[in-house]
Amino acid sequence: MEGMIAKWYTANTGKSLDEFAKLARRIAGQLPPGSALLDVAPGPGYFSIELAKLGAYSITGLDISHTFVEIASRKAAEAGVHVEFRQGNASSMPFAQDTFDFLVCRAAFKNFAQPVRALREMCRVLKPGGRCLIIDLRKDASIESINHEVEGMGLNPVNKALTKLAFRTMLLKSAYTKEQFRYMLSQAKFQRADIRESGIGFEISMTK
Ligand SMILES: C[S@@+](CC[C@H](N)C(=O)[O-])C[C@H]1O[C@@H](n2cnc3c(N)ncnc32)[C@H](O)[C@@H]1O
Questions:
Q1: Could you report the per-residue pLDDT of 178-198, keeping only the tens digit for each?
Q2: What's the pTM?
Q3: CB-defined site of ligand 1, < 6 Å
Q4: pLDDT (0 to 100) of residue 2
Q5: For residue 154, how far is its CA from the centre of ligand 1 (angstroms)?
């Protein structure tokens, strides 16, 4: 079952490669060559693979799913780039403190069983002054705006209907409000944190 969902997600989001490439260009614009970046819960790895095409970065992805680690590793090899995808839990990362310059976590934070522990881990593994960007759905996104977003994903009618259903039944339920995020952030030790609404989601930028 997990494997089927992973494959479905990989095929669906593979239709939005432009979006991953755009995010990769945006992050690359802020990242000096040689920087170490951690992609927390990369799933199929599209963001990291797009970023690896843009410069000499040291990129690591950490995902709890063995299936996604396999898929992402295969996709990186097919794209001819090096990204180290490894299996592990965002709430208990297998990395030393002060390891990464930048950390990205997209469309995944709301799935974490121990979100505050994940925030503390993000802070621990970042170098002092390192930055973190979390992008996720916000709980108060309207059904209309979500449907509109899904319409733009280039999906066939069945996958469009399934994706809308997933947003309504699962994803919105686990999403956080801005206030909940602020409260969780108050339990981690970032120097700065900024929450900005963007479309159906928000972007949370933190600095250690
Ligand atoms: C919806 S996918 C998002 C993938 C990717 N970031 C993207 O933007 O397409 C969510 C990912 O979170 C991973 N995940 C869930 N809980 C996790 C945890 N505690 N630690 C690491 N990864 C986790 C899942 O295995 C899955 O790959």
A1: 999 999 999 999 999 999 998
A2: 0.96
A3: 13, 41-43, 62-65, 68, 89-91, 106-108, 111-112
A4: 75
A5: 22
The ligand 1 atom nearest the CA atom of 65: 25
Where are any strands of DSSP class E within the chain? 36-40, 58-63, 84-87, 100-106, 126-137, 192-198, 201-207
What rounded mean pLDDT belongs to the chain? 95
Using a 10 angstrom Cβ sphere, with 0-12 exposed, 13-18 middle and 19 or more buried, the burial of residue 157 is: exposed
User: How far apart are the CA of 108 and the centre of ligand 1, in A?
Assistant: 5
Please state the separation of Cα 182 from the chain's center in Å: 19
Span from the CA of 48 to the centroid of ligand 1 (angstroms): 13
Both structure tokens of 181: 């995020």
Closest CA to 9 of 60, 53, 71: 71
Q: Is the pLDDT of residue 1 over 70?
A: no
Q: Which residues of 29-38 are buried (b: 16+ CB within 10 A; e: fewer)?
A: eebeeebbbb
Residues 137-158 have pLDDT tens digits of 999 999 999 999 999 988 999 9
- Structure tokens, 75: 């996709």
Token digits of residue 170: 């699962």
